Amino acid sequence: MLARYRAGYAYEAQREPRMDGTHLDLRFADVLRSYRTTARLSQRELADRAGLSVGAVRDLEQGRRRTPRRSTVRRLGAALGLPAPSAAGPDPARRFVLRVLGPLELRVGGRAVRLGPPRQRAVLGLLALCPNALVHREEIIDRLWARAAPATAVHLVQAYVSRLRALLLPDAPPERRRAVLESTGASYRLRVRPDGLDLLRFGRLTEQARTAVAAGNHLLAGERYEAALRLWRGTPLADVDLLRGSAPVATLAEQRVATAIRYAEAAARTGRHHPVPQLRLLADADPLHEALHARLMLALAAGGQQAAALRVYAEISARLADQLGLTPGPELTDARLQVLRGGADPRPGPG
Question: Average pLDDT for residues 41-55, to the nearest whole number?
Answer without folding.
Answer: 86
